[in-house]
Design brief:
The complex is a heterohexamer of chains A (about 90), B (about 950), C (about 120), D (about 500), E (about 110) and F (about 170). With about 90 residues, chain A is mainly alpha-helical. Chain A has helices at about 1-25, 30-55, 60-85. The longest helix of chain A has 26 residues, at about 30-55. Chains in contact: A-B, A-C, A-E, B-C, B-D, B-E, B-F, C-D, E-F. At the B-D interface, strand 1, helix 6, helix 7, helix 24 and helix 25 of B face helix 1, helix 4, helix 5, helix 6 and helix 8 of D. Bound molecules: sodium ion (2 copies).
Chain lengths: ~90, ~950, ~120, ~500, ~110, ~170
């Protein structure tokens, strides 16, 4: 039963991912797309958490943790790029 | 018979003597140079009696057995004859050159090259191995190149030398092919083995090819038509060189080869035809052209060509007597031509010109030299009582006793007479035009007799002309006999070397030729006029034009093929890949289904869809660069998720962290690259590239599908079984990385370290190219380091470090490890750079990154080296468990030290790359304000 | 599953090749990055696809083939080093040669409004 | 346990790392001593290994003490030890030459040089295909960095092409490795060789796909037509010491082809049926391309670069014959041609520096200050390359010519080899004639090739007569190496 | 299914729905500034719920100690506002259009 | 006390790290406790130069209360957002609002801005003016998804979030 519900959750999060993809493709601005990408990172974390429960393994939590950390860095870097061109100055 | 080796070796060592004695006086230096060849001659004389008594002497030193190449010498009659010519005339040339060369000319260089050349010639005639013969053969080409170009400041000398080298080099290669084929057919290169197998060879289907190749070698060397033109242009060499190379040696090497191979190759119809016709043509062409030369040496050069043709013709006739005549003429020609060249050199040297239109009436100025030259040219013309007459007489006789051309055989004596007539005419010109015929015109200086000893060589040779002419049997009879025996490899025919054979047809031909020749000379105007109307062909110019045409052709095609367009090269590469891959794929046919195929699920469908769309979007917006970067990040994210999905968390971690660094890097790059570019490719190219890309995609995709369906028989079970017991870790992937295949990892971090060093190199003295506004022309924002970001970043730093320590230590047993830990650390520091700027970080982090990199790799390496101390191979791991109070069981493993190296390298390298790139941009950043 | 992964690999390869065949260094970099994704998946899939079984001992009943995973890890790192070098090289090329064309010079004529000065 | 086997990899790595650490990273002089000394020591190691490998069976070195095929193995046989010696000789010459100023043209020269050596030696020693990939990458990344040493537009331009092509090549290599592992379940060369016979049809097809990719990868590295385009601009733009070292780089490709096709897969039917024919024809075409390049070149360095292409074609075509004789000839010729082209690169630099503005371009220039040294060196090298006696080239060419079996092959190979010899003779005599003899302008003070530069040049140039003089034992050695190479696979890894 | 499992299920469903909501906001809302609210809030909350679900599951259903998920939440709560801040800064810098009824544009200097 | 400060300059941060370490390892074994202590001490030492000068926490209890309040607000805020997102776009009344700040130190401003971003319909866009340490008053520019009354919003932020923050630091 839990598995079934979790599969439903996968479907929901998968749908969210597709919406992000749509947003990323649609834009219209770069920042919109960047926002979509960042959301995608976070949704991926959601997916990993669900997947962990589904498989009953915590092997993937570090991946989720890193996505949280690194997604932040890359989004910030792109923003910095948009603002200043030079991300390390 | 080690003396045979010495005969060659001494002059070789002799080539160093003039270099070593360069500081001595010229006479002493020349004398010293002459000593070693003289010694060689002594050896020859010492060995001569044995040869005269019919022996053949051998000496062999192994060299390259794999090739069948040995230093194998043989001394028979033919070799002996040539040894006398080479060494005898060579010594005279040394004497002559002492006076000929001016103070400006480097004697060391001249004598050095001359000795080298002499060595090469001696090597040829003494060779008992065909490959060895070829080696020395090529050496003559090389050393003659150096001699001909002795006065390299003159363009004609340079070009003439190159032309000679090219022609003889070509012949040399043909000869090599011929020799190798002989070796293939007969199984040996040793002459004493080979020469006795004429039947085998001539029956073989390759015989015609071999014959043609060998003859090409011989003909190019001995300047036979149509390869004759290099010889006159080699006359830009100093005269001693011409006297040596073009009388007794270089060109005679070709003749020697004919004589040497005579027992092996001669006797067939093909031989008759090719050698006879070539010889006859050369004889005529040379004699005819000699008549029109205004240059003294030019005349002699064409005369040489003509006489070489004569000798070749004689070998072509194929009768034993003709061969004897040929050998006799080799001797005679060498003697009179060497003396003539030297005489011409004296004239040139003392009068400053070689132009026969200027040289007139020299008899008054240098009567002795004139007399000598006249005798020698009379010999060349075939005047009785001189040596030239004798061999020419034999030649005439032989032209009458052949049936080479069948019904047309009568042509040969007729043409021979014509050639003799021409020869008389040019000899007459040499005598009359130079020594008589009025007064000199416009000579640079007043001619006079040369220094005493400069004339000695000429005197010696002219004396020989007369002596041989008068008493042939006494002087050269034995030599001719042993030489002929060697050539014929059998009993000698009956011949007589007397000067009078009665009134016979050959004598009539001689008389006719002499008479007609004189007549022709005095009526030469008509002939000159006729010749003047023919188009002038300057071989040097011709050669240059042809070479330039060749280079032009090469350039055209080279540039057509190598267009310096990377896209084309890459296209080729992918096309080749596609072609090479489609074939095995097609063979596979339907994919066999060994493996259970797993049913796809929604998530995987979604992932496929997202990845595909994002990849295509990356392609579509590749000209809006930031966008494409966003799109490719999506692809990267999906790939990460796929790794998670299929149970590879280590991969996901690594992929993710690498991707972030890559994105940061690409963004740094974007700052310098144009943000938006216009469409560069036309529709045709897009379609073409699309097609290639699609094929590659389909091929690779299919291969991967086929691969996934293959049954698995892998070595991995070993890793699973030994990871814990042998490597001390539960995470098999990590144990493979730091232990089973730790060597790969060492290489991998080395690559990373080198990349960092290389990038640092690339960034030094980078002439910057920057934009003060973005793609839309908008000024950059003023807020360099947003405050909120700065605060949060520094708060994240300890957290990130803690996480990286955690990831580092758990790596051995759970997903993680030094690499990911290093990247997390590096990214956390990079975040500081982004949030606070280069200067801020530099104040707080005073690390030399290259040292960090080096230290990292060094730690890993030394971990590996440490196992030597325990007598184990490099990188043998060690781990153990310790019970400590409170702590419980603790595992210590060498893998941790290894992984620490990995960690440090990754941190060092990543920071070295990113921070330096960032630093670079900051240091030179122009002030934003005040720019339009 | 296998087919879907193969399709992803195929599509990535296709897009990567197309990008690599472009004239600007940036597109080529993107292409190479994408090609390395494809390569990594390709190597990874050569070990067969396993769901829910890692390569960590005792964590699961069955194990995935760890070797391809280790190989991919090495490949990722090396690919990263190489990409980094190429990125900086292309910056250098832009600075030295004044444009970002892979041949160091823009094709003549046609569009003169090209982004040499962006 | 014979740790000497791994020293040709570890030693240069240690030297390279030391140059980056204090006190060496502070003092150029110390770095030079370390670098040249390190190269000499490397040469000693290599010679010791060569002596060890002579007349003894091949040895495996099991890294991490894991048995083959599970751990990575290094394989020392006569072929690999020959390549090690060759590399070390180049290393000595290159480090010595660079130590007279070239190493000041950018950071980390000596480190990169030794990293490069590590990569090359690793590629020669490893018996593991994935490890081969790793060492390829080590040598490539080092070569990228060395390529741009000294700076300048030409280098940057060449580097962009070189790097991109090689990155694609690396990706293809990985595809191939995955296919090999997927098809055979192993990465160890000897193990793979033993397993080929047991593979199913589909697995063989997959292996063939891998082989096809490997052909492209190694072909690219070796610069086989039409994958040779990168070479001309890359080799002619690098600094001389780097060029001299790069002379071995294409040979790494040849060596890999040799290992994989003449050793590992020698019994696989498809090698004879299509791999060798492909190599044969591309090899011959490569000769043509190289000769065209030589004739079209306007400077000596370009000529030297295309001479590399010619030698590659010559070797690849020979390789495809697959007989012990051909491998023997190949080995000898490989050594000869590598040293000769390396010498030519150094020589081109010395000539260029003495001819004023004309440099090494084939136009009138200033008179060369040291005509005897440079002229003799040029003659030796040119004759060597053309294949004229008495220097090593002719022995090499004779071996090659004789290794071709009777039949149609003779016609093609002999024509290609002899024809190329003639055209090279024309080109080199023209080049020499212009460079040394077409003098214009006043004599000036020019950089003399003394000390380190001269020694490095002489070291490489002298190799040619020595190779020729000792051709007897050397060719015997090459023969033994060839035989050993082709019999290793029949011995199981455990027996080594 | 035990009530704990039901709790897990409830949290998972709620979390997923919030995640979906965040993405839906992204697609649906009229301009960048409004869209930004979706991911910053809904998604973050959704993730918080999922973290809880995961923790309940591992700690109580499976009975293993598992607290790492908290870190994920911690990280997100720290970084999400900054991400949003940087994004909106960039949007303001690029002067992205606001939807028609937005007031106070002069405050943002648009 | 002073020497403790010298050897352990950032006790709060260390405590935080120590807890995180235990969270990461899911364990309270001695081994992890020990390492956690070592790391909690070592890491702040290693990077102490990177620390921005910040006021110490005056009232940890208030901080805890503040944290729970924010968490609750996040949940509540999201309920509102659900309504806004699902409802028709034309009902939205987006706005940019400037909130004047009494806070002066960067840390508390950052926390305030973050809180604002996570809670009801607001996202912090900018802290104005940009330069730190100038005399003129600073503002927080926020974007509001659905603005009912500007003054009320400002009031709410200042009361609910800024005031407790002033207590904490
Ligand atoms: Na910067
Ligand atoms: Na006259």
């Amino acid at each position: 039963m839990l598995d079934l519900i979790l599969q439903g959750c996968f479907f929901v999060v998968g749908l969210a991912l597709l919406m992000n993809l749509y947003a990323a493709i649609r834009g219209p601005s770069v920042v919109d797309r960047l926002l979509a990408l960042d959301t995608m990172y976070i949704n991926s974390i959601a997916l990993l958490l669900l997947y962990g429960v589904y498989l009953g393994t915590s092997l993937n939590f570090e991946v989720a943790l890193l996505i949280a950390m690194l997604g932040f860095v890359s989004t910030v870097a792109v923003c910095k790029f948009l603002l200043r061109g030079d991300i390390i100055e | 018979m080690i003396e045979l080796l010495f005969i060659v070796l001494f002059p070789l060592i002799g080539s160093l003597v003039p270099v070593l004695t360069a500081r001595w006086s010229r006479s002493y230096s020349a004398l010293a140079t002459a000593l070693l060849p003289l010694a060689a001659l002594v050896f020859v004389l010492q060995l001569a009696p044995a040869v005269f008594s019919g022996e053949t002497l051998f000496y062999k030193l192994p060299w390259v057995e794999a090739l069948g190449l040995s230093l194998s010498f043989r001394l028979d009659g033919l070799s002996l004859l040539f040894l006398f010519l080479i060494l005898g005339i060579g010594l005279l040339i040394i004497l002559y050159a002492r006076y000929y060369l001016s103070e400006k000319d480097s004697m060391a260089r001249f004598y050095g090259f001359l000795m080298l050349f002499m060595t090469a010639m001696l090597g040829i005639v003494l060779s008992n191995n065909l490959l060895q013969l070829w080696v020395f053969w090529e050496l003559t080409s090389i050393s003659s190149f150096l001699l001909i170009s002795f006065w390299w400041h003159r363009a004609d000398a340079r070009l003439g030398a190159r032309m000679a080298l090219m022609i003889t080099g070509f012949g040399g290669l043909a000869l090599l092919a011929g020799i190798l084929l002989i070796g293939n057919v007969l199984g040996s290169f040793e002459l004493d083995v080979v020469l006795s197998q004429a039947d085998v060879l001539q029956q073989h289907s390759l015989y015609p090819v071999i014959l043609i190749l060998v003859l090409l070698g011989a003909f190019t060397k001995s300047a036979q038509f149509p390869f004759h033109f290099w010889l006159p242009n080699a006359m830009s060499a100093p005269t001693p060189v011409s006297a040596y190379l073009h009388s007794a040696t270089m060109v005679k090497a070709g003749i020697f080869l004919l004589a040497r191979m005579y027992p092996l190759l001669a006797g067939s119809d093909l031989w008759f035809l090719m050698v006879t016709i070539t010889g006859m043509t050369t004889l005529l062409v040379g004699a005819y052209l000699a008549l029109f030369q205004h240059d003294l040496k030019g005349l002699l050069a064409y005369s040489t060509i003509s006489h070489l043709g004569l000798i070749t013709l004689l070998f072509g006739l194929g009768t034993d007597l003709a061969a004897v005549a040929a050998i006799f003429h080799i001797i005679n020609h060498a003697i009179f031509k060497a003396s003539l060249f030297m005489a011409a050199g004296i004239i040139d040297h003392e009068s400053g010109s070689r132009d026969m239109r200027k040289l007139n009436g020299l008899w008054q100025f240098m009567p002795v030299t004139a007399t000598l030259a006249m005798v020698a040219s009379a010999s060349m013309a075939g005047v009785p009582l001189l040596n030239g007459f004798l061999s020419k007489e034999m030649f005439f006789a032989e032209t009458l006793h052949q049936e080479v051309l069948g019904a047309l055989s009568w042509l040969i004596p007729v043409l021979a007479t014509v050639a003799a007539t021409l020869s008389v005419a040019y000899s007459a010109r040499f005598i009359h035009d130079v020594f008589f015929n009025g007064q000199p015109k416009g000579l640079p200086r007043t001619p006079h007799e040369p220094p005493r000893y400069m004339r000695v060589p000429v005197e010696v040779l002219v004396a020989l002309c007369i002596l041989v002419g008068l008493a042939p049997a006494y002087i050269v009879g034995d030599l001719l006999a042993v030489a002929s025996t060697a050539v014929l490899a059998g009993p000698l025919p009956l011949y007589s070397l007397s000067i009078w054979h009665g009134v016979n047809l050959p004598l009539m031909m001689s008389v006719l030729a002499l008479t007609l020749g004189i007549v022709l000379y005095f009526n030469r105007k008509h002939l000159f006029r006729f010749q003047a109307e023919l188009p002038e062909l300057n071989p040097l110019q011709f050669f240059e034009v042809k070479i330039n045409a060749l280079l032009g052709f090469a350039k055209k095609w080279h540039h057509r093929i190598e267009s310096a367009a990377l896209q084309r090269y890459l296209m080729w590469m992918f096309v080749i890949v596609a072609i090479l891959l489609i074939w095995p794929l097609q063979q596979m046919g339907e994919f066999t289904r060994h493996n259970a195929v797993q049913a796809p699920d929604t998530l995987m469908f979604a992932a496929t869809f997202v990845a595909a769309i994002a990849a295509i979007a990356t392609v579509l917006c590749q000209r809006q660069r930031l966008l494409s970067l966003v799109m490719i990040s999506i692809v990267g994210l999906v790939v990460t998720l796929i790794f998670v999905r299929f149970s590879a968390p280590d991969l996901a971690l690594t992929q993710l962290s690498v991707e972030v660094v890559t994105i940061v890097l690409l963004m740094l790059a974007l700052f310098f690259l144009p943000h938006k570019i216009s469409r560069a490719s036309n529709a045709g190219r897009l379609i073409r590239d699309g097609a290639i890309a699609s094929i590659c995609g389909v091929v690779i995709g299919s291969l991967s599908y086929a691969l996934m369906l293959e049954p698995q028989q892998r070595i991995s079970d070993f890793f699973l079984a030994n990871s814990k017991i042998g490597g001390g870790g539960y995470n098999v992937v990590n144990v493979i990385l730091v232990d089973f295949r730790g060597f790969d990892t060492l290489g991998e971090i080395t690559v990373l370290g080198i990349a960092a060093l290389g990038i640092f190199k690339l960034l030094t003295r980078l002439p910057l190219f920057r934009s003060s506004s973005d793609a839309q022309g908008r000024q950059w924002a003023l807020d360099k380091h947003p405050m909120l970001l700065a605060v949060v970043s520094q708060a994240l730093l300890p957290l990130a470090l803690l996480v990286s320590v955690y990831i580092f230590f758990r790596g051995h047993n759970l997903p993680g490890g030094g690499f990911v830990a290093g990247l997390v650390t590096a990214i956390a520091i990079i975040l500081q750079y982004v949030a606070q700027g280069v200067d801020w970080v530099r104040e707080r982090l005073t690390l030399e990154y290259h040292r960090l990199v080096a230290a990292g790799v060094l730690i890993s390496t030394l971990t590996g080296v440490a196992s030597w101390a325990f007598g184990r191979p490099f990188l043998t791991s060690w781990f153990d468990y310790f019970q400590l109070p409170l702590f419980g069981e603790i595992e210590l493993a060498s893998a941790i030290a290894f992984d620490l190296g990995v960690y440090l390298t990754v941190v060092g390298a990543t920071l070295m790359i990113l921070a330096n790139l960032g630093k670079m941009t900051t240091e030179h950043r122009p002030v934003n304000k005040g720019q339009s | 599953m296998e087919l879907l992964v193969a399709i992803i690999i195929g599509v990535l390869t296709c897009c990567a090749v197309f990008l690599i065949l472009r004239a600007r260094t940036f597109a080529v970099m993107l292409g190479l990055t994408m090609l390395s994704y494809a390569v990594n998946l390709f190597i990874f899939s050569s070990g067969g696809l396993k769901i829910g079984v890692g390569a960590v001992l005792n964590a699961t009943e069955e194990y995935a083939d760890p070797l391809p995973q280790a190989l991919v890890l090495t490949a990722i790192v090396i690919g990263f080093a190489m990409t980094a070098f190429l990125v900086v090289l292309s910056i250098r090329a832009r600075a030295d040669l004044g444009n970002d064309h892979v041949d160091g010079k823009l094709p003549v004529a046609k569009n003169t409004r090209q982004g040499a000065s962006s | 346990m014979n740790h000497l086997i791994i020293l040709p990899i570890i030693w240069p790595l240690l030297v390279a790392l030391l140059t980056l650490l204090p006190p060496f990273d502070r003092s150029l002089l110390l770095r030079r001593y370390l670098s040249v000394g390190g190269s000499v020591v490397l040469l000693v190691f290599s010679v010791l290994l060569a002596i060890q490998s002579t007349n003894s069976p091949a040895q495996l070195y099991q890294l991490g003490n894991w048995a083959a095929p599970f751990g990575i193995s290094l394989l020392l046989d006569q072929v690999s030890s020959l390549m090690l010696c060759l590399t070390a000789v180049l290393a000595v010459a290159s480090s010595l030459y660079a130590s007279s100023g070239e190493d000041e043209g950018g950071f980390f020269f000596h480190s990169l040089l030794h990293f490069q050596l590590m990569g090359i030696n690793g590629a020669f020693l490893t018996a593991d295909l994935f490890n081969l990939f790793v060492f390829f990458e080590v040598l490539l990344i080092a070569s990228y960095s060395l390529l741009i040493h000294g700076g300048g537009k030409a280098k940057t331009k060449a580097a962009v092409h070189y790097v991109i092509l090689n990155l694609v090549g690396s990706a293809l290599f990985l595809f191939a490795l995955a296919l090999i592992y997927g098809a055979s379940g192993t990465l160890n060369m000897l193990d793979l060789g033993a397993k080929v016979a047991t593979l199913s049809d589909t697995q063989l097809q997959l292996l063939q796909a891998a082989v096809a990719l490997l052909l492209v990868v190694f072909g690219l590295k070796a610069a086989v037509m039409p994958l040779h385009f990168w070479l001309g601009s890359a080799y002619s733009s690098v600094t001389p010491a780097v060029a001299a070292l790069f002379a071995i780089m294409t040979k790494v490709g040849i060596y890999s082809l040799l290992r994989v096709f003449a050793m590992v897969l020698q019994d696989a039917g498809f090698v004879a049926s299509w791999v060798f024919p492909v190599l044969w024809w591309t090899g011959l075409l490569t000769i043509v391309m190289g000769v065209l390049g030589v004739l079209a070149s306007e400077d000596l360095r370009k000529i030297a670069s295309y001479l590399v292409v010619v030698s590659v074609g010559t070797l690849v075509a020979m390789l495809s014959l697959g007989t012990p004789e051909s491998v023997q000839a190949l080995l000898y010729y490989l050594v000869h041609s590598t040293l000769a082209t390396a010498a030519l690169f150094l020589l081109a630099d010395l000539i260029a520096h003495q001819r004023g503005k004309a440099g090494d371009r084939l136009v009138n220039g200033r008179k060369i200050v040291q005509p005897v040294l440079l002229g003799s060196a040029f003659i030796v090298v040119a004759l060597s390359i053309v294949g004229m006696p008495p220097f090593s080239g002719f022995i090499g060419k004779l071996l090659l010519l004789q290794a071709v079996p009777q039949g149609e092959a003779i016609l093609w190979y002999w024509s290609a080899l002899l024809g190329s010899s003639l055209l090279l003779l024309i080109a080199l005599s023209r080049a020499g004639s212009i460079l040394f003899w077409q003098v214009a302008g006043a004599d000036t003070e020019a950089r003399m090739a003394g000390g380190r530069r001269g020694t490095a040049l002489v070291l490489l140039v002298l190799a040619s007569p020595l190779l020729s003089l000792f051709a007897g034992p050397l060719t015997d050695w090459c023969q033994a190496a060839a035989v050993q190479l082709q019999t290793i696979v029949n011995i199981s890894p455990g027996a080594l | 299914m035990s009530w704990l499992e039901w709790l897990v299920a409830l949290l998972a469903v709620a979390g997923s729905l919030f995640v979906l909501l965040g993405s839906f906001a992204l697609v649906k809302l009229p301009d960048f500034y409004t869209r930004l609210h979706g991911p910053t809030k809904a998604t973050t909350l959704g993730l918080g719920a999922l973290v809880l679900a995961s923790m309940v599951y591992f700690n109580f259903v499976k009975g293993e100690l598992s607290l790492q998920q908290l870190l994920i939440a911690l990280f997100l709560f720290i970084t999400a506002p900054i991400t949003a801040h940087m994004l909106i800064k960039a949007a303001l810098h690029l002067k992205l259009k606001t939807s028609a009824p937005t007031s106070g544009k002069q405050n943002a200097d648009l | 006390m002073k020497s403790l400060k010298k050897w352990w300059p950032t006790p709060v941060r260390s405590l935080f790290l120590f807890l995180v370490w235990l969270l990461l390892n899911n364990s309270v074994e001695f081994f992890h406790l020990f390492f956690g202590l070592v790391l909690a001490w070592l890491i702040p030492q290693l990077i102490h130069k990177f620390r921005l000068i910040q006021p110490g926490m005056k009232n940890p209890g208030a901080a805890l209360r503040y944290g729970f309040m924010v968490l609750w607000d996040i949940v509540v805020a999201n309920m509102q957002v659900v309504k806004l997102v699902v409802g028709p776009n034309k009902n939205l009344k987006p706005a940019f609002v400037k909130i004047p700040l009494d806070l002066t130190d960067n840390l508390s401003i950052t926390i305030l801005a973050s809180t604002v971003s996570l809670t009801p319909g607001t996202v912090s866009a900018e802290v104005l003016p940009l330069d730190v340490g100038v005399d003129e008053p600073r503002y927080l520019l926020v974007h509001v998804l659905d603005l009912a009354d500007e003054a009320e919003l400002i009031q709410q932020v200042k009361q609910r979030y800024e005031a407790p923050l002033k207590e904490i630091f």
